[in-house]
Amino acid sequence: xxxxxxxxxxxxxxxxxxxxxxxxxxxxxxxxxxxxxxxxxxxxxxxxxxxxxxxxxxxxxxxxxxxxxxxxxxxxxxxxxxxxxxxxxxxxxxxxxxxxxxxxxxxxxxxxxxxxxxxxxxxxxxxxxxxxxxxxxxxxxxxxxxxxxxxxxxxxxxxxxxxxxxxxxxxxxxxxxxxxxxxxxxxxxxxxxxxxxxxxxxxxxxxxxxxxxxxxxxxxxxxxxxxxxxxxxxxxxxxxxxxxxxxxxxxxxxxxxxxxxxxxxxxxxxxxxxxxxxxxxxxxxxxxxxxxxxxxxxxxxxxxxxxxxxxxxxxxxxxxxxxxxxxxxxxxxxxxxxxxx
Length: 341
Fold this sequence. Notes:
alpha+beta
């Protein structure tokens, strides 16, 4: 039975319902894309394979209302049908499902109304998925409408099974022969085993990569130690030559700092129209010194060759804020040397 609006008010109300639920899907979709991008940025991994959204058709809504024993009305649709707006998140692994559910639940402007975990407690048919019913505020020109959205989170394998199960039962209008139901249950077990196997395989791969990273770090440390022994000598020889200077500063003092790195830091001042000729000359001396020595003590700025250009206070007395910017960049270079030691 299809929902047929009887009056102009019914038509306008249904259009408003569609507007609100479509807006809710846009809100949720944007949040999920941001969470996925953030996860990629932090962990170099995307938990979401793809996102599906839909607004239930009027016909489907009416069937569900009838099944629940309610009259067909806009009010009953909004009140009793929780999945008019639906979002389906497809993940690679079961661990992604619970990670995403937690991230969604932590959104301050979303209210989690209910959770149904069909992964830990599958349906009798074999169906597995994680359902969250959330409420999202939709800001209209004259009001705020809290709108319900059902979010289903499942793996690729779970979605494959659920899609086929839905098509099969749709053909039989919900009354599939027992042998088909039994075969579907067997397939559900195979899908569950596949998910478990793929999760174990993924964890094994991650452990392997982590071990390779540790091995590479250890090899780099051993190589660095060999280079330092060859170049800087043993501990006693190092102490006699460099005192308590940390090893990164010592290496920088020997090989300097990459010219492109220094240029990226300081050449912005060369092109700054706030600098006069003497100040530009001072910055060029600073660039040359850091390229050659890797770091620079602030005390050096009062010595040669900087002293030839002029005292710092005389040079930047009329623009002390600019010198503070330069000093911050110098401190950043020195601090990086300390951190790497």
